[in-house]
Design brief:
Length: 188
Amino acid sequence: FYPTKNITTAEGGMVTTPDDEVADKVRLLRQHGAVQRYRHDVLGYNFRLTDLAAAIGRAQLAKLDRFNETRRRNASALTSGLAGLAGVTLPLERQGHRHVYHQYTVLIKGNRDQVQKRLRELGVDTAVHYPLPVHRQPLYLDLGYGAISMPVAERLAEQVLSLPVHPGLVDGDLERIISAVREAVATA
């Protein structure tokens, strides 16, 4: 529930499971690994929400459908406005699925970094989700994964660019974003 997600509690998350064993393990891990007060049988963490964070989350949950519909509307406007733009692959919504567009991530064929720089100059905030594939993360290098080739993950890490899609955007913002993306791609 990080602030950039579809709803926020400022920080934290949620686990749902129909498996009682998994639920018990998650409860144990979120509570410092304590099976009872001051007795820790496993290494755990402090993953409990404060009352204030929970209250924020409940208020946000009541707005989630509206937030998601606004994100979907914004994504639809971006998709319509960027359709047919050479060198840009737009996100797809698979038949029978309902995308809620936490991110609106496009693929930029060519120089993604140059496009991102130009968008920044034009006042459009973007992000790269994510610049380093998991198998190239330092944590995994020690496990021997860095030496393997994952060409699709590596290519995508060089091409992904997330555009603004949040519910705070209005039609004028979307038109400005579309115009800026078209200009940035044309000049990259």
